[in-house]
Amino acid sequence: MHEIHIGEDLRERNIEIAEENRKILRGNGVVTFNLMSAPGAGKTSLLVATIPHLTDKHRIAVIEGDLQTSRDAERIAALGIEVFQIETGGVCHLDASMVHSALHTLDLESIDILFIENVGNLVCPAEFDLGEDARVMLLSVTEGDDKPKKYPLMFTESGLLLPNKVDLLPHVEFDLEKARHEALDINPKLEIEEISCKTGSGIEAWTDWIERFCETRGGS
Amino acid sequence: MHEIHIGEDLRERNIEIAEENRKILRGNGVVTFNLMSAPGAGKTSLLVATIPHLTDKHRIAVIEGDLQTSRDAERIAALGIEVFQIETGGVCHLDASMVHSALHTLDLESIDILFIENVGNLVCPAEFDLGEDARVMLLSVTEGDDKPKKYPLMFTESGLLLPNKVDLLPHVEFDLEKARHEALDINPKLEIEEISCKTGSGIEAWTDWIERFCETRGGS
């Protein structure tokens, strides 16, 4: 087997804008989560399953990153939630400047929790700090248990891993213990909650995680 | 709902190198397929299921694109096939220059069919011509039937769409007819073969498609 290695691009400018976003968001008492996953792992379904459990206590807004369509944004808007749609026009990730534009438009004083749904992609989103407080990664069990070792940066950068679609475990070859072990090898601080947006299992544990996170941050 | 649009980068230089790759490959009688999909849709499993059906009549080689690991390349090498591993070091797609480096090392005169397994990503790989004869796209039915409208370029650029993991259809909400219809709306010339690398269903139709393709190109 032969090999070549290609150097990695660094995006220094993004870091500055992300820090500015973070200052603005924290200054307004907004707790911000950046949701990342491969395409079709269930980010929008997770938000649809999650938001109704939070709206009693928190004012929620969503930034929806999408390549071409506003389908996801429409699913969220149907919940009566303020949605800012970023159509990236083919760019495969959100960056801090895209989110910065959204911050000028959203009424931040009336938001407690901001979810940013990133573009479906296991690679580039992990390289771009958006100014969030925490990164949450979904991994559908249909994608295979080799993903931590193959896409390590995504696991390194996330605070919480949500293995999703666990209702499909009887039908796929996915060793949850192996995936958990390899993910923790990469990032020993990673928290892990198994969920199924379809059956609702694990959604309470995930919303409890959000509540604990908000309390720790002195948020809403 | 508010919206912003971000401009798309164009990568002109890639086109020239891709044309050079194409000239080299065709000049050596190599028929080349570029396999693209989201992470975990089954590209490597497809190659493992496919190659043994082709080795009687054709000499096969594989270029494996991967972010960090050589796991996929090892699975292919275990079949006794020449594999060139491109570790992109975090870059989320293969480009023509990466493939060009591989062409200097592979013994092209002893290859009839070259499979290039792209990095798992539904976005950027579609923007980079590698010099292939055809692009083949896998779509796991676990990813959702909204993917054609959400990732249109991938469907526009592919000659063949392989909906994979159809054994899971009873357990997921995926409307195959809707996905087929929306994919053909985007690309009316797209051919579609449903497969399951797990059960083997559709693999014969796919290898027949390869054989027909090679005959039409005057290949092996």
Plain-language structure description:
- The structure is a homodimer of 220-residue chains.
- By secondary structure, chain A is an alpha/beta fold.
- The first copy, chain A, has one domain (6-216): Rossmann fold.
- Chain A has 8 helices and 8 strands, in the order βαβαβαβαββααβαβα.
- A 7-stranded parallel sheet of chain A has the order 4-3-5-2-6-7-8, sandwiched between helices.
- In chain A, α1 runs parallel beside α4.
- The radius of gyration of chain A is 17 Å and the shape is globular.
- Chain A starts with a strand and ends with a helix.
- Mean pLDDT of chain A is 91; it is low at 1-10.
- The interface between A and B is large, with 61 and 61 residues.
- β1 (2-5) of chain A pairs parallel with β4 (82-87) of chain B, so a sheet runs across the interface.
The percent of residues in helical segments of chain A reads: 25-40%
Question: How much strand content do the residues of chain A show?
Answer: 15-25%
- The largest beta-sheet of chain A arranges its strands as 4-3-5-2-6-7-8
Using the 3D structure, state the CATH architecture of chain A: 3-Layer(aba) Sandwich
Under CATH, the homologous superfamily of chain A reads P-loop containing nucleotide triphosphate hydrolases
Structural domain count of chain A: 1
Most extensive interface, chain pair and sizes: A-B, 61 and 61 residues
Distance between the termini of chain A: 54 Å
Secondary structure tally, helices of chain A: 8
Round the mean pLDDT of chain A to the nearest integer and report it.
91
Written as H for each helix and E for each strand, in order along the chain, the element string of chain A is: EHEHEHEHEEHHEHEH
What sort of overall outline of chain A do the alpha carbons produce when their principal axes are compared?
A: globular
Largest sheet of chain A: 7 strands, parallel
> In CATH terms, what is the fold-level topology of chain A?
Rossmann fold
How many strands of chain A? 8
The CATH class of chain A: Alpha Beta
| Rg of chain A, alpha carbons | 17 Å
Low-confidence stretches of chain A: 1-10
The multimeric state of the shown protein is: homodimer
